[in-house]
Specification:
Number of strands of chain A: 11
Largest sheet of chain A: 6 strands, mixed
Oligomer: heterodimer
Largest interface: A-B, 25 and 28 residues
Number of strands of chain B: 11
Distance between the termini of chain B: 36 Å
Helix content of chain A: under 10%
Strand content of chain B: over 45%
Number of helices of chain B: 0
Largest sheet of chain B: 7 strands, mixed
Helix content of chain B: under 10%
Order of helices and strands of chain A: EEEEEEEEEEE
Distance between the termini of chain A: 36 Å
Strand content of chain A: over 45%
Structural class of chain B: mainly beta
Chain lengths: ~110, ~120
């Protein structure tokens, strides 16, 4: 079983709408949780980094939340744009080392 | 400041051939990480290197795969005697320093390897 599970696997929304992506993890203890955006054919780009003591972190229209008690994180996208169409990947960094544990990603498609 | 560069972007090999993937980290970065992304799957850590040192290769297959990051030049991921199951996107990332768990890894565009 993957230590980082994301849902939904894919999502289609209309331009301008909001959406929320979920991430459940079992990696423990961990130092930080990251959300990446990966456009098709490109490498992942960091959106947010949260330590275990942070509850929320924003980056423009992206807001990530973290509940370390329930081991859940979410990424909320506000007023979606066509350019938001991408895979969104939840990544957990364990306390020891630099090995990142990746979720399978959520494929988001924003339609006009 | 150029980002992480990888080449080639696409590589086609026949079974049994060798594949060499190159990664030039961002300027000033001395830590390099290689990841593999199989079709329809998430990225998986392979190896973490500093200049002239392999720090963590726990994600690397024991046979046929090797990585290096020489004092001069790019990091190389080498796959010998490729098989169809090696077909994947291979991503390289770099970071400025380790020891800081806040450190961001910057990813390259990836090399897509196709084994015929």
């Amino acid at each position: 079983k993957n230590q980082v599970e994301q849902s939904p696997q894919s999502l289609i929304i209309l331009e301008g709408k909001n959406c929320t992506l979920q991430c459940n993890y079992t990696v423990s203890p961990f130092s930080n949780l990251r959300w990446y955006k990966q456009d098709t054919g490109r490498g992942p780009v960091s959106l947010t980094i949260m330590t275990f003591s942070e509850n929320t972190k924003s980056n423009g229209r992206y807001t990530a939340t973290l509940d370390a008690d329930t081991k859940q994180s979410s990424l909320h996208i506000t007023a979606s744009q066509l350019s938001d169409s991408a895979s969104y990947i939840c990544v957990v960094v364990p306390n020891a080392g630099n090995m990142l544990t990746f979720g399978g990603g959520t494929r988001l498609m924003v339609k006009p | 400041n150029a980002g992480v560069m990888q080449n080639p972007r696409h590589l086609v090999r026949r079974r049994g051939q060798e594949a060499r993937l190159r990664c030039s980290p961002m300027k000033g970065h001395s830590h390099v990480y290689w990841y593999r992304q199989l079709p329809e799957e998430g990225l998986k850590f392979m190896v973490y290197l500093q200049k002239e040192n392999i720090i963590d290769e726990s994600g690397m297959p024991k046979e046929r795969f090797s990585a290096e990051f020489p004092k001069e030049g790019p990091s190389i991921l080498r796959i010998q005697q490729v098989v169809r199951g090696d077909s994947a996107a291979y991503f390289c990332a770099s970071s400025l320093m380790t020891g800081s768990f806040q450190e961001t890894q910057y990813f390259g565009p990836g090399t897509r390897l196709l084994v015929l």
